[in-house]
Write a structure and sequence with these properties.
This protein is α+β, with helices and mostly antiparallel strands. Helices cover 24% and strands 32% of the residues. The protein is built from five helices and twelve strands.
Length: 245
């Protein structure tokens, strides 16, 4: 697939944050902004995103054409597109799986994260991928999924711009399908690729946590957790794996 028609492509040697730079160019939306070095990248809940040399940091600025409350579904669209692109580039689709709500795993470890941020009518979809190196596990939050990089996992070194050129058309195709077909097909496909489906997990919140069986996601992307009290619908949580399961 070639670069998606009507989508701008910006490559920077260095940026504070691709989220900031993409929003600054959002008059040209849709626009992808890639930075080879990112000095102030952030992940979920404002945590710093470590970016060793050779890794991938890019943001898509998009003006979605559907209802505002459906914007969060792009975390699943982006995850599926990222898995598509990684499978195409490596030729090893079995390496990759999906972790709710917005991570792509490789060999069961965290390879990539996706961050959605709305600013007015602009949706920013930030993606970070450990292409060449993974951050030390010691700098991550206790209990987090161990990181991995694509080079050590697949034996292939993929450049950031090559990654972008595979990801952008994959996302454009997934976005078109979302608008045309609705979320149901992607919901089903995401669940087929989800890690720990039907297995015990722990959902953590600011003041408490819940343990239960991961039973999938609903039509709005919320996680369904089967507990002794019944099915719990979780629109947001931090998910940790129960290694005993």
């Amino acid at each position: 697939m070639g670069w998606p028609e009507g989508t701008a492509r910006v490559v920077l040697e260095e940026a504070d944050s691709t989220q900031t730079q993409a929003f600054a160019r959002s008059d040209d939306a849709p626009v992808w902004v890639l930075a080879h070095r990112q000095t102030s990248g952030t992940g979920r809940r404002g945590r710093p995103w470590q970016m060793p040399t050779g890794n991938f940091a890019a943001t898509l600025a998009l003006r979605p054409k559907d209802a505002v409350h459906r914007r969060s579904l792009r975390s699943f669209t982006a995850a599926l597109a990222l898995r598509d692109a990684l499978s195409e580039l490596t030729g090893q689709p079995a390496l990759f799986s999906l972790k709710w709500p917005n991570d792509v795993l490789c060999r069961g470890r965290k390879l990539a994260g996706i961050l959605l941020e709305s600013r007015g009518d602009v949706l920013l979809i930030g993606i970070g991928i450990n292409l060449a190196a993974a951050p030390a596990h010691s700098v991550l939050e206790q209990g987090s999924t161990a990181p991995i990089d694509l080079l050590s996992a697949s034996g292939q070194l993929i450049g950031a711009e090559d990654m972008l050129d595979a990801l952008a058309p994959a996302f454009a195709e997934r976005e078109a399908r979302l608008l045309r077909e609705g979320f149901d097909p992607q919901q089903a496909e995401w669940m087929r690729g989800a890690t720990r489906l039907g297995q015990p997990i722990v959902a953590r919140f600011a003041q408490h946590e819940l343990s239960g069986r991961f039973d999938g996601i609903d039509a709005d992307g919320a996680l369904l957790l089967s507990t002794a009290e019944g099915i719990q619908r979780l629109p947001a949580a931090e998910i940790y794996f129960n290694e005993a399961g």
